[in-house]
# Entry
Amino acid sequence: MQNVIAVGRQLYLRPLARADAAAFVPWVNDPEVTRTLAIGARAMDVRAEEAFIEKTNASAHDVLFGIVVQETDQLIGSTGLNQIDFRNHRASFGIMVGEKGAWGKGYGTEATALVVRYAFEKLYLNRVQLHVYEYNLRGIRAYEKVGFRREGVLRQEHVYDGRLWDTVVMAILREEWEEKPALPASDPCKT
Ligand SMILES: CC(C)(COP(=O)(O)OP(=O)(O)OC[C@H]1O[C@@H](n2cnc3c(N)ncnc32)[C@H](O)[C@@H]1OP(=O)(O)O)[C@@H](O)C(=O)NCCC(=O)NCCS
# Structure
């Protein structure tokens, strides 16, 4: 494990660097991966990925982490917080497990829990929110397992595959996490 930001049971999070951009290119150009992402289906090359990583790393209002499997040290995607609002102690959550062979193994749930714990423990945020398309049942299930609650629906907010879909708004509050944390508090020696 290198440059560890947060450690879970099977995964760890680490910063992303320019050199990681190439790994993301096949993922962000795969319609099966992007069908549930706001970036949608548009061609992205390695330069665009490098620029995205550098811009996000330079931002005071975003954090971006690579998701890595501890056992193999394999990078399987990215996650993080954006639009961090320190005045109102809130941020928006995002995740992409780009490696499709890694879906359905609990990694998305664990990475989400690691970022939520980071938001509450390290950034002292109070609220983490997200938008998820109604047809992203895998995502909704993962977020519910971490403790996100459905707060509402943006009706017919999104077009995919020739039809309109609702977007579900979900959030988790610090008090909800503290009452029922999906992961134990981090070990300050290991983060
Ligand atoms: C969404 C995503 C983060 C989920 O990660 P993951 O590692 O596949 O999810 P997990 O294995 O942790 O959990 C998925 C849960 O959904 C369940 N699930 C899978 N398919 C499902 C379906 N069609 N209906 C309902 N639940 C489903 C799984 O059974 C599992 O729940 P369980 O542990 O109770 O059995 C990941 O698939 C991903 O990045 N997809 C592409 C990009 C994306 O959608 N990003 C999020 C945008 S909001």
